[in-house]
Fold each of these.
Amino acid sequence: MSVTDSPGGRLVRWIGSWATVIAPATVLGALLFYFGYISARSQYEYFGIDVDAIGLTTQDYVMRSPQPLLVPLLVLTLLAVALLVLDLWVSTRMVAAGVLWRLPRILSTVGATVLGTGVVLLFSYPLVRDWPYYNLVTPVLFAVGAGLVGYAWRLSDVAQRLREHQPSADSPASAPAARSPDSSLWLRRTARMLVYIMIIAGVFWTTATVAQWAGRGQARDQARHLDTLPRVILDTKEPLYLRSPGVEERVLPTVEGQTFHYRYRNLRLLIVGRDRMFLVPEQWSASNSTLVVPLDGSVRIQFQFQNPR
């Protein structure tokens, strides 16, 4: 019996096969949680709520992530298809036209310029941090600039291989190419790894910014359409002294055994947390405040019907 057929070998193969499935799923789950958290934090910050005070679960954040990630994923997919088509066109047409020998230098120059602009913006943050598009333009410059540099290096490798297989007067290859020292090879690989890291960081930063903007946009849409939220009647034992416009306060008649003495109308349910509810006035105003109601029996909640007449 060979080593691979032994129980230990089968166990190693089984663990390796499951690791290839679990590792990407874990990374994907972590990314969905992160972008869902960023979106929810921006959304409820608009109403003056720290999202950590709501008590949402990991599953809640993951379920919220598809909406802010939909547009970035579609854009990245279309961009990847466009880049593949462009690469195919470059590999077939531009090689025959003889432009491939000059293209890597052009792309390297343009990419280094774009990347340098992103670096300048990054270190100029104290001066331009109030620019509303800073968190979008800066990572895009990093991703595009690093991507152009990386693609220029790839075309340079293709051109080098063509020179070796197709010697000409402009690109002599009769003599064997000298092998690069190990240090030079290590530097090139390290530089390419850093370029890939900058591309990933730029895409990640851009997507996080889009998720943040999506959360803020969703909050503004909710503020414009508060009538779509559930309407709530709130009874309390003590007056709340609410100053938000539109909220109606009424003193309930004194009845034996009645523990609630004040009733508030024109409130809407924004979200339910782990042990509390967050209510907002149904008439939006910048001076409004969010009311936090504990779910411990100290208040009485009624939901009004929303059926059309």
Amino acid sequence: MRVFITGGTGFVGRNVAGTLLDQGHEATVLTRSAPSGPTSSSRVAYEEGDPRVAGTWQEKVAAHDAVINLAGASIFCRWTRAKKRVIRESRVETTKNVVDALAARKGKETILISASGAGYYGFREEEGIGEDASPGQDFLAMLSQDWETEALRAEQLGVRVVLCRLGVVLGKEGGALKKMVPAFRAGLGSPLAKGEQWFSWIHENDLARVFLFLLDREDVAGPVNCTAPHPVRNREMTKSLGQVLRRPTFLPSVPGPLLKLALGEFAQVFLKGQCAVPAKLLDLGFPFGFPTLGQALEDLLTG
């Protein structure tokens, strides 16, 4: 299968592209700056372009059987008005341009796997949130709804659209774990606020395998929670991370008001959460390699 990937040079995208190649697929990665030297595989190509802007890169999409849309600016920053605009445009405008490009494949069997976020559900306390739950009303929830709306336009072209609502992706080379580990290694790890907020997560390798799984499942469309089967509360996450790193976590909790002062509105990502579960994937029998947080952390930090 030939797969076109936006966001393929990012933390998640690199692992997804590598997994596709390992399974014998071909990949074209859209990037703002294509490598000038030889690449490591003849089955990966680079197309230069900015996915937020319509351009000649869109002409290449028609030659592919599927698109995996992962592009999006990091949300791990203080959310000024300008930053929110960048976060939004990097997702919504990119997806609009991808769907516009898919018009050239109308009438051909095509798949669009488009990233979204578990933040779609908003910040809530109830357990076991499946794909049929209602959306939230905060910034990330509204962003996810607009993001998904753009992706679903492709259904009018006969494209099978899968909306992957990602939890926090845990990996070795980037993402949230890389930001958390230094403090824990220094013995400064502690819960945030009361530590009761939910943490929905997924191991980077399981996520990449989910994308391949969904490419092959012609019977699957619409939203799919891409999270591990066992979300945890912040306090449990803190304890597990300390145990794997063999570091103490007995310091007092970080006060919520202090985080809000330092991070502004973005602090609610750490102070609140949602307990998203992969109901569809479990029903389909997807075999998670790392269903529990302890297993994932052991693999990522000691493997």
Amino acid sequence: MQKCASLLVCLFAIMVSSAFAGISVSSPKNNSTVQSPVNFSATAGSTSCSKGVASMGIYSSPGVLAYSQNGTSLNTNLNLEPGTYDTTIQQWDYCGGSSKSYVTITVSGGTGVVVTSPANGSSSTSPVYFAATATTSCSKGVASMGIYPTTGDKAYVSNGATLSTNLTLSPGTYNAVVEEWDNCGGASTTPVTVTVTSGSGGGGSTFSNLQESSGWETYGEYPPDYAICSSCGSGVTWSMEQKIKSPSLSGDSTKYTIGGDTPYSDVLWVNHLIGPGSTQGMPDNNETVVPTLYNFTYDTYFYGTDLSLSENLEFDLGQFFDNTGLMFGLQCQIVNGSVWGLWDGATNKWKGTSIPCKPLSNYWNHVTFQFTRTSSNQVYYNSVTLNGVTTNINVQYPSFKAEGWYGLVLNFQLDGNYKQNSYSVYLDNLTVTY
């Protein structure tokens, strides 16, 4: 290895190993006064590293990494207490280089409408989740809030100073407005632009807030064969608590907990959406609905205080008819490479990908999966979106035999690690569009 003539020369060589153009920060503006949550939107600059930019992040203060994600852009909201912040937006390349942009902001208590979802300038499948809060100088408080997806089109109104709902919108770009009306006759608005890429706007249907639904069934799974058990002993334990107010986006999240003393044991939660045992009032007794379904979206927000304790987080949707089974399953392999894995039901195995899955602890991570049953009854994985970053998958696997099974089934699973550490994950705004 070549040695350096002096420490300063060595440091300079490291610093210039990758040359960058500046990071473009569109929000927030330097030296601006903003309300919390603060929208951060930035695009990476170019780099001389031939492999390109690997990831970007936000430091809310020196040494405090508040957010990071893979890719060459970021768009997220950070909850910050009132005060002045010397924030840093940083990019890292695949050659070990990095570049920074500095933005000083003042977060005020202020009044008005704060939209926490969707992020301004983001993309979303339909239905689009809208969440906002409002404050006012009116001593009588906020009376109500509403959403205008387009000018003059009041699509939703709720009483009080909070708003949380899903809107079914056709594909396209919407310059939406969220408005609050106070009890003194005043009003204020906040615009938010969102691009709807696909979803139920084209005639699909949606089950919303499924984390609140009744009828969830729970099973343990022991290694190495992972056959399900209902009364599993101390090796694997679990609990499920609904109507959690905090942490929550809607005010009704659900807490899923895994524990026990047998390493690598799992817990599976199941909800029958359509078919026998339907929790949604759709038993489909004549078996005329499920065979007609081809396109699906699994969309949810998840939160954990320490997601590093999880081996995997698994999200599945199963379709069964005419003795045929299709299982659309993705798992966030937190321990094994921090990538997404795809379920191949024909071989009964997980198949690895290079698609990053690095969810943040103490943060509401938003994940969306899109699946298709092909005309030849193949499982087709379209795409996965995590925290605003969409990756096309375009992978296909065969179906499998499932004699006597029928329906559309929703799964969520927590996998235990090598110590079977107990941990919890909260779900909110869980929707399935079909």
